[in-house]
C-alpha cells in the first residue's frame, strides 16, 4: 500500500523569540501537525498564540528553536528555494505601479519565465479569478476583494502544491469575504493545492477546512483538531445543520482551550 502523500510535517516544534536584552517570548510549545497533499487546514486561536509564527516557520521566513519541519519531505529552506508554496497575506501587497497582469506575472518574471509563457499563464489566472477585463488596470482602480483575488492569483502563478494564507480575507467586508471563500474552495478543487490558512473567524475556518486546528494562548499548543467532512462546500452549506455543528465544536474547543492546554491535553 502506498503511503498518503504528505505536504507538511511539523514535529515537536518549539519557537522561542529572544530579544537582544535576553527577554524571551515562548511563542510555540511542542507543536506537531501533519498536512496531507491537497488538504485544507485552518489554524485558529486567540491573538498572540503563534498562528503567524507557525506559518512563518513553514515558509522559512523564520527559524525553529527545536523540533523539525518538512515541506514535501524537504527542509523549509529547500522548499522555499524550489518555490514549492505560494503565500498570500492580509495585505494584498500589490505593486501599485504595475498592472494587474504585471503583478500576477511578477514571480514568473523573477524566476526567468519567457514573456510568452508568462502571458499564457497570466491569461489562465486572470480567467480563473474572473478579472480578465481588468488585466491592464492598476491596483488602486480595484476594490479590496479584487486586489485580494489578484494576490491569490499571484500566489498560484507557479502552480504551487501548497498555499500559505495568513488572514487573507481579514480586511474584507462580510459579503465580499463569503464570496472570496467560495472562490477559494473552487480554486482549491481546481488546483488540488494543500492550504494552511490562518483566520480569526470560526465560520470561515469551518466552511473552508478539512480540519480546523485549535491553538491555546501563548505558548501556543495544539489543543484540539476538529475534522469536518462535508460532502460539498457551497452556499447551502452555510445554512446546514452540519455546518452549525462544526461551528459549535470549534467554539467549544476554543473556549475550553485554556483549561485543556493547562492540563496538557495531548496534541493531535
Ligand atoms: N519577531 C518577534 N520577536 C519577538 N516576539 C515575537 C516575534 N514575532 C512574534 N512574536 C511574539 O510571538 C507571539 C506569537 O505571535 P504571532 O504573531 O505568531 O501570533 P498570532 O496567533 O498570529 O496573533 P494574531 O492572531 O494577533 O495575529 C506573540 O506574543 C508575539 O508578540
From TrEMBL:
Residues 11-242 form the ABC transporter domain. It holds the Pfam family ABC_tran. Keywords: ATP-binding, Nucleotide-binding, Transport. SUPFAM superfamilies: P-loop containing nucleoside triphosphate hydrolases (SSF52540). Transmembrane segments: none annotated. The keyword Lipid metabolism does not apply. GO terms for molecular function: ATP binding. This is ABC transporter ATP-binding protein.
